[in-house]
Design goal:
Rossmann fold, alpha/beta, six-stranded parallel sheet, Quinone Oxidoreductase, Chain A, domain 1, 16 strands, seven-stranded mixed sheet
């Protein structure tokens, strides 16, 4: 038997339960993975609270999309992995390469990883290098890969360019770490001076508290010395789209990722700036990102870890916004 969480889709955090269920078996082409660690994303709150109807299967789903673990067993015909291999399941299990996902995503349309064991298509598993621990690796499938795609998939980040990332959650901090390793300059906004101080410890060149600033746009513009932003990592949404555009270079990119402050900005347009929706990424991109992380000795931060039995507390910590980078679950 194993522990497994489920949430009633759109019914709230209080509907998340943990129960004992049988350990599944791997079928042909599949691998059974003993999940060791998982991390939460804002998307998990969206699904639990029903903020974006239709995002998850009903009436319930095993939540959470990002994890790391070890292969416990494989089914017939599997050659990609073997028992004992450390692995990370990709966010979109069928999206191995190419420009578009088929819509199957863990912790939403299909069951996720808030469970001690799970069966995955073996081809959807990426090998986990020894340089990364389980908690670090569990930050990669959604937040980190989204940042990687924002910085590489549509407009390759160049040395000395300026990147602007809003907030200090998993996407923004991954973008900070990647962009600095690419030789770019990074500005970060947040409402917390303490979080901005931590962002500076990870290499942020400019930090601006948008809550205490009289005009955060002017403060960013002044702080970057008359330069403009090549790529905005926009986790906030449409409410500040115009401000992001005003800071951008001709031919720059608004990476439309989140809706922390309003509706998604995916459909908005602006002259001279590409508003590019970012849809996480495929297996090839995940593997390229992992190679980059190892090459540059990047250590993804995790702020706090909860046991699976306290998954509701983990969700409420995420909901509070009082965290830096990632909130994690231990499934050991």
């Amino acid at each position: 038997m194993m522990k497994q969480a489920r949430v009633q889709t759109g019914k709230g955090i209080e509907t998340i339960t943990v129960s004992e269920v049988p350990i599944p078996e791997a079928g042909p082409g599949e691998a059974l993975v003993r999940i060791k660690a998982a991390t939460l994303n804002y998307r998990d709150l969206i699904i639990a609270k029903g903020l974006f109807p239709g995002l998850a299967k009903e009436p319930d789903v095993i939540p959470v999309s990002c994890s790391a673990g070890e292969v416990a067993a494989v089914g017939a015909g599997v050659t990609r992995v073997k028992p004992g291999d450390r692995v990370v399941p990709i966010f979109s299990p069928n999206w191995l390469s190419g420009p578009a996902s088929d819509g199957a995503m863990l912790g939403g349309p299909i069951d996720g990883v808030a469970t001690q064991y799970a069966v995955f298509k073996a081809e959807s598993l990426c090998h986990l290098p020894d340089q990364l621990g389980d908690l670090e690796a569990a930050t990669l499938p959604c937040a980190a890969l989204t940042s990687w795609s924002a910085l590489t998939a549509f407009r390759q980040t160049q040395p000395d360019e300026w990147i602007l990332a809003h907030g200090t959650g998993g996407v923004s901090i991954a973008a900070l770490q990647f962009a600095k390793a690419m030789g770019a300059n990074v500005a970060i906004t947040s409402s917390s001076d303490a979080k901005l101080a931590r962002a500076r410890s990870y290499g942020a060149d400019v930090t601006v508290n948008y809550r205490t600033s009289a005009n955060w746009v002017s403060e960013v513009r002044d702080a970057i010395g008359g330069n403009k932003i090549a790529n905005v990592i926009d986790t906030v949404g449409g409410t500040q789209f115009d401000e992001n555009v005003s800071l951008s270079i001709e031919g720059g990119q608004i990476s439309a990722i989140g809706m922390l402050g309003s509706e998604f900005s995916w459909t908005k347009q602006a002259s001279g700036v590409a508003n590019q929706p970012i849809g996480v990424g495929n297996r090839e991109q995940h593997e390229a990102m992992t190679d980059f992380i190892v090459k540059h000795d990047i250590k993804p931060p995790v702020d706090v870890v909860y046991d699976l039995d306290r998954i509701q507390d983990a969700y409420r910590h995420l909901e509070s916004g009082k965290f830096f980078a990632k909130v994690a679950l231990s499934l050991i």
